[in-house]
Each structure stands twice: as C-alpha cells, then as structure tokens.
Amino acid sequence: MINDQMRQFMMEKVRDNFLRYVQVYTTSDPDEEEKTPSTERQWDLARMLEKELRELGLEHVRLSEHCYVYATLPANDAGKGAEPFCLLAHVDSSPDQPGDNVKPRRIENYDGSVITFPDDPDLKLTEEDSPELKEFIGDTIITASGKTLLSADDKAGVAEVMAAMATFRKFPELPHGEIRVCFTPDEEIGRGTVKIDEDWLPKFCYTFDGGYPGELEDENFDAWGVDLKVKGIGVHPGYAKDKMINAAATLSRFIAALPEWETPEHTEKREGFIHVVNVKGDFENASSSFIVRDFEEENNQKRLEFIKELAKLFEKRHPGLEIEVEVKHQYQNMAAIVRKTPEIVELADRAIREVGITPVRKSIRGGTDGARLTQLGHPTPNVFAGGLLFHSRKEWIAESSLRKATEVILHLARLWAEK
C-alpha cells in the first residue's frame, strides 16, 4: 500500500517540518496559572500550523482563543462510514531547559561515536546516556547545539501529524476515514486540556507524544500535587532561644524526613515516588511543592496520609509552628478506562507492526494530554514520536523514527477505515 515514492515524500516532509518547528520558541510557564496559553510565544507555532493546515486544504480549520488548533481531514471514498478518530500533539516545550534560539543539527551517517555539542564543548552524548544510540548507527541523528533542549517533545509529534496530513493530500488513494487533528498548548505544565473543545472531539483519540520507536502506552501515573506552607516565628537571632521557630530550617528537616528511597532518583518501572519540585522561603515563612506519583491510587493515598501526619508531628514538636498542606488530584491512571475498549490499542499495535517495528507496550512514568482526555470519556492511548532524553540538553531523535511514526499514522488510518 505505501510505496517508496510515498516514503520519500513523508521523509522529506516530516524532516522539514521538524527542523522548522523546533526553532519556534514555545516554552510554557508553570508559574502562570490564570491564562491559557501560559506564554504568548506559543501562539507563534499555533498560527504557523493553522496556516499550513489551511494550505493543505483540510476542513474546519480554526485557532481558538486559547491557542488550540483544530482541523478535519474528511474521509475519502475508501473510508466513508468509518468511525472518526483524533490525532493530538502539543506545541509547547518543557521549561526544564532553555527553549529559545534552538539550533538543530543533523549528524548524517552516525558512526556510533560520542556526540559532542558545538555550543557546549563539555557536554557529551554517549551510549551510557542513551544505550539506544547503537541501534541507529548509519542513521541521521538530530540534536540541538548544546545550550537548549531540542524540543522533540513534542514537536516531533506535531511534525509527524502534519506530514501525515500532507501525505494523505498528496496521495489521495491512501484509504482513510475522517481524521481530526488537534494541537494543544501547555501540556508540559499539566494544563494541555483545560480549555479544549471537548464537544468537537470524537470518541477515540491518540496522542503522538511517546519516546522510543514502537512505544505504545495505555497506562500512566495516578498523579497528585502537594503544596506545603510553613509559618514559623521570627525573633532576633541574638535573643531567639526557646522563642524562634525557623521556618526554612524546619521545612528542610521535614523534607529530610520523607522516605529517601521513594524519590525519582531511586525508583523505576512501576515504583511510585514523592518528588520535591521546589523549596522557597526564609526563617519566618517557607514553602515547598511536591508531586506524588504511583500507578495505584491506593499507594498514593498512603503517601499523602504520611505527609499530613508528618505535618501534625512537626507542629506537635514545635508549639506555635503552622504547617498548611494542600492536596490536589492532577490526573488519574487511564488504564481502567482505555482497557474497556481494547480495540483502540490493538489497532495502534497493528499499525506499528506494519512499519516493521515490534510494539513496546509499557506504562508511562508520567502523564499526557491523553490521561485527562480519557477521564473526560475519550480513551486516548499514547504512541511513540521517536525522541529520547526528553527535557534534556542531550535530547535527540533519529530521522528514521520521524518517518516511521508518520507511517504509523497512515497504517492506523487504513485500519480504522477497514474496521
């Protein structure tokens, strides 16, 4: 069905898309909680995508007041009557690393050696950092220049969805039903669906926001946020004996009392954790934010109860100390809902096999827009986009991964049309 001419077109289109998109500064802002998008710069890529979708001739193209891009590829004759589905990717990039002035570079015919970075001679990418490198010898590797992330998370997904739409338009004989496209802002700060047009979404969706080629994920963390505010008693340090309660020092001891082996740096696979995100304050007032993660909500509830009881213990130990604990459920594990309609994952599994890749079924040690969409009643598994070492200045992607993810979309469309 997919011939060499189509693959060549896909490769050129997705590579061109990706190299252009990563240069658009779209970092989101976790401290901006009131507006969507959290940063004005995300509009730049959203407007670019809106324009390109119109030029491709997709229908019902619109850019919402909150920076969501929507479009519809109507069914062709081979897919008439097929159930529609939606492809999603997010335009923002992580605030964990600088995202301005990204300079992508292509390392052709990669020979397996250590990769260095022109803008930071001390930075090196090795197989120790990413053992997957050895699987891509002879391929073209794309990295940033060393000062920024690459933002393959998730501009790889955006580039792949756009390249797939261009391929469907270039080769109208490719079978497909109605496909809806949605690009979201603020996914990296956990707010990618807060203003989404839920009524426009079809029943089933896919996010293209995964990593290693072949990844197919239908389970993610159950996620909680904890904000801790500590109010001490400030007294002149020269006369503070038995009077002062140092908020910053007390908060430090509180954090030290958390289980050391239940932190991100000591956990893997299905193990949960408590992660200290930030610490702020002085001797009178201090605060900290944690995230609490596990695949089982019951385990998270035990961690949350531990934090609350620890706060009571510290208040009892230091009369006059006040510790406020605010807990918020951020998103839930999608597994229970997605697995009620197993065909949506089975079709993605078959599409991945069609491109010659063995699917890697795994659980996401994190969350995607799909977790929240699933909660809203739109089962949304996550498919690989191909990037590795996300949120890092060593982030990289192979060009073959970009093409294969794009080709997965083509096979997925055919399978839905046949269904």
Instruction: Return the domain count.
Output: 2
What does the radius of gyration come to? 23 Å
Mean pLDDT: 95
Count every helix, treating DSSP H or I runs of 4 or more residues as helices: 9
CATH topology of the largest domain: Aminopeptidase
Q: Stretches where pLDDT falls below 50 for ≥5 residues?
A: none
CATH superfamily of the largest domain: Zn peptidases
Assess the beta-strand content as a share of residues: 15-25%
Main pleated sheet: 8 strands, mixed
Run of helices and strands: HHEEEEEEEHEEEEHEEHEHHEHEEH
Basic shape: globular
Quantity of strands, as a count: 17
Major sheet: arrangement of strands: 1-2-8-3-9-16-10-15
CATH class of the largest domain: Alpha Beta
Q: Which structural class matches the secondary elements?
A: alpha+beta
Query: How helical, in percent, are the residues?
Result: 25-40%
- Report the span from N to C terminus: 17 Å
CATH architecture title of the largest domain: 3-Layer(aba) Sandwich
Show the helix and strand layout.
Blueprint: H1 4-21, H2 42-56, E1 59-63, E2 69-73, E3 85-90, E4 105-107, E5 115-117, E6 120-125, E7 141-143, H3 152-170, E8 179-184, E9 204-210, E10 215-220, E11 222-231, H4 247-256, E12 273-281, E13 285-294, H5 297-317, E14 322-331, H6 335-338, H7 343-354, E15 360-364, H8 369-375, E16 382-384, E17 396-398, H9 399-418
Parallel strand pairs: 3-8, 3-9, 9-16, 10-15
Antiparallel strand pairs: 1-2, 2-8, 4-7, 5-6, 7-17, 10-16, 11-13, 11-14, 12-13
Helix pairs in contact: 1-3, 1-9, 2-3, 3-9, 7-9
